[in-house]
Predict the 3D structure of the following.
Amino acid sequence: MSQVSTEHQEQIREVLQASPLMPVITIQDPDHALPLCRALVEGGVRVLEITLRTEHGLEAIRSVRAALPEAIVGAGTVTSRWQYRQVESAGAQFAITPGVTEDILDFAMTANVPLLPGVATASDLMLAYSRGYRYFKFFPAEVAGGTRALRALKGPFPDVMFCPTGGITQDTASGYLQESNVLTVGGSWLTPAESVVRQDWSAITEIARTSLQALAKA
């Protein structure tokens, strides 16, 4: 069975260690992509997961990569080999899936962009673990058991580290980061829809800044 490369695992580790927060960004209006991501970076959050939940995701990745070289830009909600190829072409620096399939894992072995596979159960984790993966997205975190589930998974998988995402808020993020097998936390609270619709980019910057400050004090 093919194994994920050490280089890819090191690249994902560096991404997860670059920021304690990773905003989950869904672009509804292509004109919002760049100012939204710039606002997050100005607030101190420079690792960005731009999802493919809308048709604007790929173009947003291209524009943000070109305009904000200080940011680390990845693609989220990658659900097929075809999408994986697209995010590579768009310039994404990493790919995140909501779950794992044999086909995605097979493609990731030869891809240029490293993969952060999504898992919700021990069985999901074992599928990728057998191929050498040690870094995972835990999704949907709150529904799948939250911090209690992460503590339970640490027993059989002591060498695995997570980025939990799904239902996490500014108030609960610090609890996740206190778990020894969590490197960073993902969430959509950093980009509230009402602020984006109003194009209140200063509010986004303030949310990013205060979220980081709250974690520093925890």
